[in-house]
Amino acid sequence: EARTVVSLGRAARTQAGLRVRQPLARLRVATTEKKPALPEELVREVAEELNVKSVDLGLPVASVAQRVVKPRPQLLGPRLGKAFPAVQEALRQGRYTLQADGSVEVAGQRLAPEEVEVALVAPQGYTVVEGEGYVVALDTRVSPELLAEGRARELVHRIQTMRREAGLTIEDRVIVRYEASEAIEAVLRAFADYIRSETLSVSLTRGLERDGYYTWSGDIDGQPAVLALKKV
User: Are strands 134-139 and 24-31 parallel, antiparallel or unpaired?
Assistant: First the structure.
């Protein structure tokens, strides 16, 4: 069940165009059928896998997303004739019952699953994915603090990649120097301890030196940066 939630959460990230290394505030999880409760250690693992600060489980679907049923006029119009406008209006107002088999009871009519289109509408700032008896809503709003943390994770990933490309071992400690945009430099300063710890860097210093350094230049989250490292 935890793996299913993670899979749906990743699908929501992909749908929203948000990379996994960008931390997000919240994942809200509703169930459309009876599901076992997840123990706290698995909830923490779901949060870690999806890189979200909190996971809210066991919510009713209505609190996560709005389910909307739209008629297919090309099918219902000819079949219902004069009754079609009343059915259309009742669906628009939400005066219907969605059955387990996908059919819909509305305005005294029973509509077959193929005669309607059922969709979930996410609240503003969320993206919603449904499957395997779950509806997950991912908070896609990225605050300045979350954006900075995401960029710090991108920097760690880049430096770790540079270490491998430079042929260093997993135990080797390095010196890191940089030149970067003001936004990236602010992240390097604010998250210096985290970056040094994750990359085994003994120093993280502004200003480049080429002699003996392995160098990378490019963008970090759309911001220009040049990084250089060498083994201590």
Answer: antiparallel
Strand spans (E) along 132-221: 134-139, 174-180, 201-206, 214-220
Distant-in-sequence, close-in-space partners of 193: CB < 8 Å, separation ≥ 6 = none
For 24-70, write each residue's pLDDT tens digit: 999 999 998 899 999 999 999 999 999 999 999 999 988 999 889 99
- The CA distance from 106 to 103, in Å, is 10
- What number of other Cβ atoms are within 10 A of residue 115's Cβ? 19
pTM, whole model, 2 decimals?
0.82
Non-local CB neighbours of 96 within 8 Å, separated by 6+ positions? 69, 90, 104, 105, 106, 107
What 3-state class would DSSP assign to 225?
Answer: strand
In angstroms, how far is CA 149 from the centroid of its own chain? Answer: 15
Query: Tokens representing 4?
Result: 């299913």
